[in-house]
Each structure stands twice: as structure tokens, then as C-alpha cells.
Amino acid sequence: MPRTSGAELKDEGNLAITYVGMGRYEEAEQLLTNSLQDIDGIELRARRAYRRHLGEIYREQGKYAAAEDALLETLNSCRQLPGKDHPFTLRHVNGLGVLRTQQGQYEEAKTLSSRAAGGRKTKLGPDHPHTLETVHELGMLYVAQGDYDRAEPLLLQAFHDREAKLRPEHPHTIDSLEGLVNLYESWPRPDEAAKWRAKLPPKEAAEK
User: Fold this and answer.
1) Cα separation of 121 and 114, whole Å?
2) Do residues 120 and 134 lie in contact, with contact meaning Cβ atoms separated by under 8 Å?
3) CA 149 to CA 159: how far, in whole Å?
4) Are 56 and 67 in contact (CB under 8 A)?
């Protein structure tokens, strides 16, 4: 029998996702692992989401082999249902693209991130937060490759659209600001880096 009810599992999963956003990866990993043990109490879509979040946790922890297993498993499942171009599937494509960037597998990362960006733009619109997530990640891929001319317009677009769509203090907007600082420090264009660093909230600016 399932250890907990479906409602309790959903609450547990939602709490784990909150922990992911807070960077509390070990706690989130434990909650998601426990929830997935009660597989009969979780609907298919939730299981896929939990596995994707586990993949993201492993990626942030540098556990790339475990991250790859989790993300590929859910992506292959999503290709059958709900389909390869469904927004839910494209979230997994985007996550795998980020992993490939961190692994230094840039050509595959570009293929995955470009597919996610195009699919999300078509399905969700050009200024949807998920579309902007992929635009940002594609820009960061180009930064990692040292292709700063191609990275700049993508990161600027992601920042300005996130600032307008979300709010200046939203974590995703802050991510875009940090991405621009990273870009201009890497280029290097120190005056531009300083300009964007000055826009960061005090805590983030102090850590730079």
C-alpha cells in the first residue's frame, strides 16, 4: 500500500519543489525520493515532474551521471505521452540542454536549447517565462563557448522581458542580471559589467 495518500504526496512534492527554488537541494532530494517510493499514489505527470526535479537537483550538485539518468528517463517517457512538442516535454528538453552545457557538450546543448526555445516560442509565446528561461540558457551557452556577440542579444532580451513580465526583484530577473555580469566580465568589458552589477540587489552584488 502507498505510505501516504495522494493528497499528502502532492503536498510533499510541492514542498520539495519549493526547496529546490530555495537551493535546499538535500532536503528536496529526500522528499522527492520518498515520494517516488510511493509510486502507486502518484499520477504519471507528477512522477515525471518529480524525476525532472531530481535531475535538476543532481545537476546543481554536480552529480551529472545521476542527473542524466533522471532527465533522459523522463524525456523518453514524455516523447510518447504527451508528445515531443508538448510544453511539459519541452521543459525536460530545456533541462537536458542546461545539463549538457554544464558538461561541456556544447553542440548537443545548442541543439536541445534551440529546440526548446523554438518550441516554447511557438506553443507559449515569445515572452512567456518558460520561453525566456530557454532564451537565457541559450545565451549562457554562448558565454560558455566564448561566443559573446551571440550571447549578448539573448541575455539582454531575457533580462528586459523578464523584468517587464515578472518584476525586477524576481529570482529569474536576478538570474538574467547575473548572466549579464558574467557575460561582460568574461568578454571582458568591465565598464558594462560594473553597470549591470550595480543593478543587483545588495546581497547578490556583495557576492560578486
Assistant:
1) 11
2) yes
3) 16
4) yes
Phi-psi region of 127 (alpha: psi -120 to 50; beta: other; left: phi over 0): alpha
Long-range contacts made by residues 149-155, C-beta under 8 angstroms, separation at least 24? 151/183, 152/183, 155/179, 155/180, 155/183
Secondary structure letter of residue 200 according to DSSP: S
What's the rounded Cα separation, in Å, for the pair 199 and 208? 12
Helices (H), 103-199: 106-124, 129-145, 148-165, 171-186, 190-197
How many angstroms separate the CA atoms of 71 and 162, rounded? 26
Q: How far apart are CA 70 and CA 60, in angstroms?
A: 13
Prediction pTM value: 0.81
SS3 24: coil
pLDDT exceeds cutoff 60 at 206: no
**pLDDT tens readout for residues 97-142:** 999 999 999 999 999 999 999 999 999 999 999 999 999 999 999 9
The DSSP line for 34-65 is HHHHTGGGS-HHHHHHHHHHHHHHHHHTT-HH
Secondary element (H or E) of residue 76:
helix 64-78
pLDDT of residue 51: 83
